[in-house]
Design brief:
single chain; 3 helices; alpha+beta
């Protein structure tokens, strides 16, 4: 999913709307889609799509404490521990009061994605590009 853009990235709001409209069981982890929580299981392909449009953001893998359990989650980070910026367009899958805990930055050149994961990411990216083009974003 290398970035091949030549124009400026879409605004985050437009990107978030395109992502949310593109999520379904084919882009969700293990094919589990929750209509009442559409962001559930969408964090990895969403983070990869964000990285396509915002290539200066890295992919972070970490833990989220939900108040009842620890869940694995992916999001995007730019900067260092002293000064960093987060883009997390699937955070809404977690209940209010959830907290990110430890995380690591993944090497984008050594992700080792399985074929099914690559397909989910590619499908989501294609849908988002189509929606952004249709909306003029």
């Amino acid at each position: 999913m290398a970035s091949d853009r030549t124009s400026s990235p879409p605004e985050l709001r437009a990107l978030a709307e395109a992502l949310e409209a593109s999520w379904d069981h084919l882009t969700a982890y293990n094919g589990v889609f929750c209509p009442d929580n559409p962001a559930f299981g969408q964090c990895y392909p969403t983070s990869r799509v964000v990285q396509h449009f915002y290539p200066d953001f890295e992919l972070a893998r970490g833990q989220v404490w939900t108040g009842t359990s620890i869940e694995r989650h992916f999001w995007n980070v730019r900067g260092s521990d002293d000064s960093f910026e987060i883009i997390d367009l699937s955070w809404q899958q977690f209940p209010c009061g959830s907290v990110r805990q430890q995380y690591e930055i993944l090497d984008r050149n050594a992700l080792g994605d399985r074929e099914a994961t690559k397909m989910r990411c590619s499908l989501l990216l294609a849908r988002v590009i189509e929606r952004l083009a249709a909306s003029g974003g």
